[in-house]
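Supplementary Methods, section 5.1.

A reviewer requested that the exact input to the structure prediction be made available. We therefore reproduce it here, unchanged from the version used in the analyses.
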Amino acid sequence: MGDTRDLLHGRTVMITGASSGIGAAAARLFAAEGAAVVLMARRKDKLLALAEEIEAGGGRALVAAGDVTAGGDVERAVADAVDAFGRLDGAFNNAGWGSIGASLHETDDAVFDRVMETNVRGVWNCLKHQIPVMLGQEDGGAIVNTSSIAGLFATGAIAPYVAAKHAVLGLTRAAAAEYGERGIRVNALMVGSTRTELMETAMREVPQLEQAAAARAIQRRLADPAEVAQAAAFLLSARASFITGSAMAVDGGCSAI
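The structure derived from this sequence is encoded token-by-token as follows.
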């Protein structure tokens, strides 16, 4: 008879970008699937409300507010996770930022810097501090990084975002290759247009954006954040034990056409 326990039973999982969108959906799902969740984002008030919701439902949650672009904040969050729960079994490095509307030669340096700092430096910082903990565990761990279909091809998004999400995939594959024999699996989600807080803001600013984004997908719609979270949960679970270094598309078929 198969294992009937929850998908992430007994695991401790760190989630960045947990205050809204995909990260918040992942926190709710992972907790429902039996994980103790460590919530990291800059908006502490949002994290506290989410943790209260999770705990009211019988789950376990730790708030570790901070900025992924600051290595010290990430190091502290990882240490807090270990102090609270004894180990770190998984990480969903999901925090990201992007903007739309400027050609490469018209993009401000400040925009380039913020995109690269959040999407690339943030994932780098997380890997750098999560991996040593997992190396010290007999059974290693699993990491999922949020990339994008912009990490596979140019999507019409601004050039820095395309470059950053390609870099996230590169970091994922490099880490998978380096630590696979030591029990750590590292995968990336190549996410299509998703109805997040950031996307909703962009669609208000550019009314035609939703129709254009939906038209790129075979399913002709945007993803719900919970659908992306389901893919992350699977990759973090033992059911994905032979999957590492992969780029899993969660894009409604956008990358197939």
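The mean pLDDT is 93. These observations are discussed further in the main text.
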